[in-house]
Design a protein that fits this description.
By secondary structure, the protein is an alpha/beta fold. It is built from 5 helices and 5 strands.
Length: 134
C-alpha cells in the first residue's frame, strides 16, 4: 500500500501554530513543509493568540510553492494523498475550516491532491456538506 500512497499530507495544529508536511511514506522523510512557526511567515500573518483560516491558506500556498521547487506538485504522477475526514476528526470539527483552507491553498496553486476516503462509504464532500448543514 505504501507504493500506491507514496506521498501523504500530514497536518499539525495547535492554538498558536499550523504546520503542514508532505511525507514520503517509502522512507519516512518529510519532502516539504510549511508552518506559521517560520519567521518569514510569522511576520506576515496577524496571528495573535490563535491562527485563523487565512493563516492556514497561506501555509497551503507556501507548501505548494515548495513542492513545485522540489518538482513534486504532482507527487511523481500519483498525486499527494490526504484523508480529509481523518484529519478533521483528529483536529476536531472546530478546525475543519483550517483543514479545508490548507487543502484549497494547495489545490489552487496547482498541487495534485487525491482526497482519500476512510472506507466508511461516505465521501469527504458529503462529510463537509453535512458538517456545515447543521
Amino acid at each position: 500500500m505504501t507504493g500506491l500512497k507514496r506521498y501523504v499530507l500530514r497536518l499539525f495544529m495547535s492554538l498558536k501554530y499550523i504546520t503542514a508536511n508532505v511525507v514520503d511514506r517509502n522512507n519516512g522523510r518529510i519532502v516539504a513543509t510549511a508552518s506559521t512557526v517560520e519567521h518569514s511567515l510569522k511576520g506576515t500573518l496577524e496571528c495573535g493568540r490563535t491562527c485563523n483560516a487565512k493563516a492556514a491558506a497561506v501555509v497551503g500556498e507556501v507548501l505548494a510553492m515548495r513542492l513545485k521547487v522540489e518538482g513534486l506538485e504532482h507527487g511523481l504522477g500519483r498525486g499527494i494523498h490526504v484523508d480529509v475526514q481523518k484529519e478533521i476528526e483528529k483536529k476536531g470539527l472546530k478546525n475543519a475550516t483550517k483543514v479545508w483552507a490548507i487543502i484549497n491553498g494547495l489545490k489552487n496553486n496547482g498541487v495534485k491532491l487525491i482526497l482519500d476516503d476512510d472506507g466508511s462509504g461516505g465521501s469527504q464532500r458529503s462529510y463537509r456538506e453535512e458538517r456545515f448543514r447543521g
